[in-house]
Amino acid sequence: MLFINADEKASWQKLHSSLLGKNILTVSDIHGFTSSGGMIEFSRKNDRITVLLNQDAINAAKLSVQSRLLKLVTVVRGG
Hints:
By secondary structure, the chain is α/β, with parallel strands linked by helices. It contains three helices and five strands, in the order E-H-E-E-E-H-H-E. The chain has a five-stranded mixed sheet.
């Protein structure tokens, strides 16, 4: 698992390219992280923490997610 802090937003695309095809779970608090190919994004909505999960990115890394976790997150596709 690799956490990318929002302060590293400018480096994300280069880092993302180097991680393609590797079995590394990417997690961040960068706004739009999952839509740019990241796997799990923590964000704030109405003073609550929400979690977005990019199922396509997880599948591409040959990782899997338990169904219990899928019930707690918002699943997005693409990126």
